[in-house]
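Good morning,

Both structures are done.
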Amino acid sequence: MKKLVRRIIGATKDENFMHVIENIEVLVSKALSIFMVIVILVAILDLGVFLFKELFTTPYGKFNTTLFKIFGLFLNILIALEILENITGYLRKHVFQVELVIGTSLIAVARKIIILDLEKTSGIDIIGLGIAILALSISYLIIRLSNSRDKH
């Protein structure tokens, strides 16, 4: 009988501990989401200031180089939104959504390629980006196929 009581008390302690850990995870996730919203708002403000300044001060014919910087800033905001979606998805389901994480990674690599300066980039860096895109794309395809099979 004493062993049974000890087991019940031990299980309760473990359950309490896990409950405390889950509460901490939720608090950290909420704090991260608030900070990410602040980052997104500041990034939008930065984009607005940059756009306004560049549109009215860039001499004619130089806007194409500025355009890549603008695309980079837009993609930064999209990446931040995807990270926020990852955090809020975790808050909703308490599970990391691998498909979202891989999608976010693909956007980040696409951003890197869009703003890439080919004159300053070595061939090995370009090969590395290609391998990263291939690996992420295959991973994304596997996850999508796996998720579609689970739904049917």
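Second structure follows.
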Amino acid sequence: MSQLENIQAEYEKFPEEFESVIISTVSAQAIPNASYAPFIMDDSKNIYIYVSGLSTHTKNLYANPHINVLFIEDEAKSNLIFARRRLSFDCTATLIERETDDWNQIVEQFQGRFGEIIEVLRGLSDFRIFQLTPSEGRFVVGFGAAYHITGNNLHQLVQITGDNDQKQG
């Protein structure tokens, strides 16, 4: 396998290391908020979060559906704190309406992954499921080893060099 093929395989498996994702939202007043949420991901790289309607990040998603998500290597597992492996996506959030076929299917996936707590959350009317649809992203595996991901093909990494540098991450 080539180095790119190895990194591509690492990228595909990286989100599987996590049960929650760091989320960054912005309020209607342009105030940022960092939080986290347990998630599931489908084969198209859509991320689903099941969150309380009372939380700041959920209120922000209603005001501004643009969200950034971050998966980042545990500090204890990192060889170099300045170069932790990380994957981020710029996404658009869409509410999944309660009790629809899509909602029920996603709740079942959450229950399969997280167990009985989902039965409790399912009974709480303020909990919402959002689909986070990535438009682009960045996978960083070390110094000088950053890869851009576009919404045209979320399964394909493009190495970032000085000639094709995208936004920093």
